[in-house]
């Protein structure tokens, strides 16, 4: 799994947009900015 802690916010936003396009769901709407742990949003099925 890729570690994204410390990644530039712009890189995270880009990754989220790619995921949104892929799954057709707006992750930013489901988890507003500032309230979402990036790891949980990017890897919702990751154990622990």
Automatic annotation (TrEMBL):
<protein>
    <submittedName>
        <fullName>LysR family transcriptional regulator</fullName>
    </submittedName>
</protein>
<dbReference type="InterPro" id="IPR036388">
    <property type="entry name" value="WH-like_DNA-bd_sf"/>
</dbReference>
């Amino acid at each position: 799994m890729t570690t994204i802690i410390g990644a530039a916010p712009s890189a995270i936003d880009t990754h989220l947009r790619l995921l949104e396009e892929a799954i057709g769901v707006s992750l930013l709407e489901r988890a507003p900015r500032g309230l979402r742990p990036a790891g949980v949003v990017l890897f919702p099925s990751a154990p622990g």
